[in-house]
Write a structure and sequence with these properties.
There is one protein chain. This protein is 67% helix and 0% strand. By secondary structure, the protein is mostly helical. Helix 6 (105-134) packs parallel to helix 19 (330-350) and helix 12 (203-221) runs antiparallel to helix 13 (233-248). The longest helix is centred in the N-terminal third of the chain and has 30 residues, at 105-134.
Length: 414
């Protein structure tokens, strides 16, 4: 069999049908993905709102109900795991639609990622610096305290998106959520290589490579100064790519019914949930390297199941209009919510006579909706202008990633 015929065969296997992916890879938004983004972002928001008042390693309220709620929202890390998987899933959809090609090639992909991420990130960086200089730079005993110290090295690291590499020295500065932006940005640098391997050797090779490299480096970095790089997230990203092929491609995994994917998601979530709810946070937080892969698998299986399911209660639930609305600006919400939470804390605890528990309650009931609205306004100003054009806009013809010849990846454009 000729190389070109092999290429065409692999290309046909990569995409189930053009119509199957048109609603996902071809559209600007995927409703259930936006819903999951919203749920993850809202979880992080509530998680950090609680940390402003009650740290899991500190003194907690006497109420068993409140303790239980705080325990449920202790693990914002799992939401970040889900974000990484979603990123791999979404970036894989256009590749599936283009039958194994990066539209425009690797250089165009990098330019699009820079335009999509950097302007909004820099705007949030500047906003946080201004707020620290004027309003929230004082140490108050809250979780935000870790972000109030800004050094020259920390600023430079954040400008270069290297705060994960130097996390041991500058971690948490300016905004304690920014670490994950650097981690994800570094994974993007590897995406053209992932696409190349995917098109040439299949999704199993992608999972093997990202698993061996990501988990191997993750275990090596665990407990060292480079732990903040979180190499294991490369594997979670690979799981997201695999979930996209399972949902919209044609392989052994894509034949599984949605309910089987949901069962896999539920089973994979059991180990991290059991460990999280049984062990003290101070111990659990030292073992993310072992818990992240399980939660990543759960998130990927959930995405695959939702993609295969055309309807149903679960898909309908995550596609509710309010969730889709929040999901559209979840990036902005993630970037600025921590700084806004500190402002809410200052207003409630410095300008009112509310008791500490009452201020906590008001911050949840009134403060969080205000933060969501403020994040939406930030999105309109600093994120939406940099979004890619609508899917109906004229596109460049796909060209081979990494300059493959017509006998390899290029054969899939036929």
């Amino acid at each position: 069999m000729s190389a070109s015929r092999v290429g065409r065969k692999r290309g046909r296997n990569l995409v189930r049908t053009a119509g199957a992916t048109a609603g996902a890879a071809g559209a600007g938004r995927v409703n259930y993905v936006d819903g999951l983004r919203a749920l993850a972002a809202l979880y992080v928001l509530v998680h950090h709102a609680i940390l402003q008042y009650y740290q899991p390693w500190g003194v907690l309220p006497n109420s068993a109900v409140v303790k239980g709620a705080i325990g449920f929202f202790n693990y914002g890390r799992f939401a970040v795991d889900t974000f990484i998987v979603i990123s791999g899933f979404c970036l894989a959809l256009p590749v599936i639609k283009a039958q194994g090609l990066l539209t425009g090639g690797a250089a165009t992909f990098f330019k699009r990622r820079v335009r999509r991420i950097v302007p909004t990130y820099y705007a949030s960086l500047l906003l946080c610096l201004l707020l620290i200089a004027t309003v929230i730079g004082e140490k108050t005993g809250t979780h935000w305290d870790v972000s109030t110290q800004v050094t020259g090295g920390g600023l430079l690291a954040h400008l270069l998106l290297l705060q994960d590499v130097f996390y041991a020295k500058v971690g948490g500065q300016i905004n304690h959520v920014f670490w994950s932006i650097a981690v994800e940005s570094h994974i993007y640098l590897l995406f053209p290589g992932i696409v190349w391997l995917w098109a040439r050797r299949g999704i199993n090779a992608v999972l093997l490579a990202t698993g061996v490299i990501g988990l191997g480096l993750g275990w090596w970095a665990h407990g060292t100064a480079l732990e903040g790089v979180n190499p294991q997230y490369l594997f979670l990203f690979g799981l997201g790519v695999a979930a996209a092929e399972a949902a919209y491609g044609r392989n052994a995994f894509s034949s599984l019914a949605p309910r089987r994917w949901f069962l896999i998601a539920a089973v994979a979530a059991i180990p991290p949930l059991v460990v999280a709810f049984r062990g003290p946070w101070t111990v659990v937080s030292k073992f993310w390297i072992y818990l992240d892969p399980f939660w990543g698998l759960a998130s990927a299986a959930l995405l695959a199941g939702l993609g295969r399911a055309k309807s149903g209660l679960l898909r309908g639930g995550v596609e509710l209009a309010p969730l889709r609305w929040i999901g559209a600006f979840s990036f902005s919400l993630y970037l600025i919510h921590a700084a806004l939470l500190q402002i809410v804390w200052l207003v409630l605890n410095r300008t009112t006579s509310l008791s500490y528990p009452a201020a906590f309650g008001v911050s949840l009931v009134l403060g969080l909706p205000l933060i969501v609205v403020a994040s939406w306004l930030f999105y309109l100003l600093f994120e939406k202008p940099f979004l890619p054009p609508p899917a109906s806009a004229k596109r460049k013809a796909p060209i081979p990633v990494l300059g493959q010849s017509a006998g390899g990846v290029a054969a899939r454009s036929e």
